[in-house]
Amino acid sequence: MSSPDAVIVGAGPNGLAAAVTLARAGLEVELFEGADTFGGGCRTSELTLPGYAHDVCSAVHPLAAAAPFFEGIELPLLTPRVAFAHPLDGGRAAAVFGSVDDTANALRDDRRSYRRLLGPLVKRSARIVPNALGPVRPWPLPPPAMALFGVLGAQPASVLAGMMHGEEARALLAGCAAHSMRPLRAPLTGGFGLLMTMLAHQVGWPVVAGGSSGIVEALVSELERRGAKMHAGNIVGSLAELPPSRLTLLDVTPRQLLALDDGRLPARFRRALDRYQYGPGIFKLDWALSGPVPWTAEICRETVTVHVGGSFEEVARSESDVWSGRESEHPFCIVVQPSVVDPSRAPAGHHTLWSYCHVPNGSTRDMTERIETQIERFAPGFRDLILARATAAPADVEAHNPNYVGGDIAAGANTIRQTIFRPTLALRSYRTPVAGLYLCSAATPPGGGVHGMCGMRAALAALGDLNGARAA
């Protein structure tokens, strides 16, 4: 058995980011992935019909466009003019453009309110975003830009919505804040809404030409150039099965770490991992369509991402239902139509469509009818375009990626505790009590999303420890 410097278990975006960071530092890296292909939640496949490319999980990538880890990595990103849109009844819709002023001017009732809230944050986004993509620490005192974001972001989305007067601006905030998978009255949900909107103004909400797997291909290509050894279809059942190495980084969540433990983890740490809380799951649909989605509001036809769910109050009710353990009768749906900017996803004139709604963790209810009814509400005739569909309930989502326990694509609930202390109540977020053993998954800061920052920061922590050991 070989003895690399570092072993990585799990080749999702964070595992790959950890491997790249360590390989760049000159370490010999060996990576193991249980699935037949690398990528975790960042894969593309013909889920419905031949010739239709669907993103299996992640589809839109503002975080990849802005994250420090991806600086210098060329990604084939395609960015629509309209970052995202939110249709309302009566043929209306609100939308976010690249410019704060352009967005504000379209919000007639909230021109000043939108500029006042987002303008200062967007001006400071180059300093805020890198800090937001890391561990939340109450000390040392944050720089002024982060202090401003912290004060506003700590608020529930419902409080920030109270600063707006019109239904359109409130709906925009609801759609972004709902990415937190938390009730919109919960603290910190405002921060999710603000961060996602800031990213829309800073880098847009792009997709990857050909599919999200293009991100993984770029990372795998760099690892190959640097001589890393990579094994797909190689399920690791125990830490004892791994080759000896100075560093071991695990792109897994607490539940998988407990299963991998070969007796080295202290009982106290095992109990802490066992208390880790998973959040709501998703029910996902993919469609092959014979034409573009016939949105009533024209602006929805110009963007890749459409938040479907109606008013702020309707979205808030849907997310509250899910957190309370009920499937929503009228679910909030994130809808992605990549063919708007990427015609390579489907045969000429045809389109692919991607959508999910939040459901209670482990839900077994089929949400197909409810999701399609919501889309049809704002795009009459949508159902007539469906050539084929693929469904993925929470169990299917977890089967595709074991980190998505119960369908939780965030790999852990975004509660206050797990935003500040993730995965356990400790300041050493990436380290375990076992020397040389680290977690690098979305169960560590900053959490879910394709940004690579969990992997990069875990690798930097490991390198720091290794260099300290060398120095000693």
Entry summary:
This protein is α/β, with parallel strands linked by helices. Helix content is 35%, strand content 16%.
CATH architecture of the largest domain: Alpha-Beta Complex
Terminal-residue CA separation: 29 Å
Domains, number: 2
The coarse overall form would be globular
Low-confidence stretches: none
**CATH secondary-structure class of the largest domain:** Alpha Beta
Strand order of the largest sheet: 7-6-12-13-14-11-15
Strand content: 15-25%
DSSP helix count?
A: 17
CATH domain topology of the largest domain: Polyamine Oxidase, Chain A, domain 2
What is the mean predicted local confidence, pLDDT? 94
Q: Portion of residues in helices?
A: 25-40%
Number of E-state strands = 16
Word description of this protein:
It is built from 17 helices and 16 strands. With 472 residues, the chain is α/β, with parallel strands linked by helices. The chain has two domains: 137 residues, FAD/NAD(P)-binding domain, CATH 3.50.50; 268 residues, Polyamine Oxidase, Chain A, domain 2. It has a seven-stranded mixed beta sheet, with helices on both faces. A five-stranded parallel beta sheet has the order 9-2-1-10-16, with helices on one face. α1 packs parallel to α10 and α8 packs parallel to α13. The protein is globular. The mean pLDDT is 94.
